[in-house]
Recover the amino acids of this structure.
């Protein structure tokens, strides 16, 4: 099982550009439903864990993998940063947080790998699209490295093993 400090965030930064008519935000009028269409160009992508920005390639690769395949619920919001800059923020937090222990379980590795396989072999309508995914040998251990040393991304690797047979028998005799 893998634990880390929530929340996970994926931030997509976008710059407003004139639309096909050359109109900018100030020149647009909202539609009948009160919405306004914007023409945006992506200018940046940032990922965060526990409020800290991931800057190392191994950190960002792990957070991207977790954002795609973990079960934590995701909320999204569009923020007007100003000067024609917008940010789409996807935030994942556990249903129940344990602030006192300073981390939360994001999932078991087998579950995360299974969800990766499932998303790679099915459509959004849950229809099978292929029977396998292309994964190079050794890819799975690199997705969640056990030797990652990062002040920005402390990880808790929890290994659950069965009790020794003698301990199980002793507990049953009581």
């Amino acid at each position: 099982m893998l634990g880390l400090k929530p929340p996970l965030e994926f931030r997509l930064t976008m710059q407003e550009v004139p639309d096909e008519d050359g109109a900018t935000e100030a020149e647009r009028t909202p539609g009948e439903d009160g919405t306004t269409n914007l023409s945006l160009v992506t200018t940046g992508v940032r990922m965060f864990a526990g409020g800290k920005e991931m800057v190392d390639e191994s950190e960002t690769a792990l957070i991207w993998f977790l954002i795609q395949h973990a079960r934590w619920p995701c909320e999204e919001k569009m923020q007007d940063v100003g000067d024609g800059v917008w940010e789409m923020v996807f935030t994942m937090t556990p249903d129940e947080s344990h602030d006192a222990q300073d981390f939360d379980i994001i999932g078991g590795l087998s579950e995360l790998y299974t969800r990766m396989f499932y998303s790679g072999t099915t459509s959004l309508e849950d229809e099978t699209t292929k029977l396998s995914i292309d994964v190079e040998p050794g890819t799975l251990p690199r997705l969640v490295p056990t030797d990652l040393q990062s002040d920005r991304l402390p990880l808790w690797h929890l290994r659950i093993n069965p009790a020794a047979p003698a301990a199980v028998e002793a507990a049953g005799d009581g």
Notes: The mean pLDDT is 85. The CA atoms of residues 5 and 103 lie 4 Å apart. The chain has four helices and eight strands. The helical segments are 57-69, 109-121, 139-143, 165-173.
